[in-house]
């Protein structure tokens, strides 16, 4: 090519590394956390365990376990750079079943916490003795 010829535009990437995409889509805060999640089996691609270097393409389905939440998403876009959250949300589409299951699990965890009431003050000497004797914090 001569120096006067315009350089052709860079081709659009047809695939991106799995750990890089998880980081760019903001499922994990760092790329090393994304790689660790993939290596420990918390991310499945198409129902199969994958490596962090696996090439991800548009249309692939992912199952991502992050903490107590499980996401089932379809890849709708590829990116190897981390941008704003509004851009990251365009890279995937979460299934309705996944969204409903996450909301139900969140409501269940909130309901489990509703019954607990923290004591208003520290236990006094008598209460501490009861707690020690019974081995139960709710002995007040």
How would you describe this protein?
35% of the residues lie in helices and 18% in strands. It has 140 residues and is α+β, with helices and mostly antiparallel strands. It has a single domain, classed as RNA-binding S4 domain (Structural Genomics Hypothetical 15.5 Kd Protein In mrcA-pckA Intergenic Region, Chain A, Roll). A five-stranded antiparallel beta sheet has the order 3-2-5-6-7. Strands 1-4 form a two-stranded antiparallel sheet. A hairpin with a 2-residue loop joins β5 and β6. α1 packs across α2. The relative contact order is 0.12. This is Heat shock protein 15. It comes from Lysobacter gummosus. InterPro entries: HSP15, S4_RNA-bd, S4_RNA-bd_sf. Keywords: DNA-binding, RNA-binding.
Question: Which characteristics define this entry?
Answer:
140 residues, alpha+beta, Structural Genomics Hypothetical 15.5 Kd Protein In mrcA-pckA Intergenic Region, Chain A, five-stranded antiparallel β-sheet, two-stranded antiparallel ribbon, 35% helix, 18% strand
């Amino acid at each position: 090519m001569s120096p006067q010829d315009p350089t052709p535009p860079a081709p659009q990437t047809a695939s991106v590394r799995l750990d890089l995409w998880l980081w760019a889509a903001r499922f994990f805060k760092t790329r090393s956390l994304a790689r660790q999640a993939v290596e420990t089996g918390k991310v499945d691609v198409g129902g199969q365990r994958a490596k962090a270097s696996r090439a991800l393409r548009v249309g692939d389905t992912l199952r991502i376990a992050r903490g107590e939440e499980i996401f089932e998403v379809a890849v709708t876009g590829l990116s190897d750079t981390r941008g704003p959250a509004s851009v990251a949300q365009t890279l995937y589409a979460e299934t309705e079943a996944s969204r409903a299951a996450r909301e139900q699990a969140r409501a269940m965890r909130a309901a489990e916490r509703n019954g607990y009431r923290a004591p208003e003050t520290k236990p006094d000497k008598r209460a501490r003795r009861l707690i020690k004797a019974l081995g139960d914090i709710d002995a007040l």
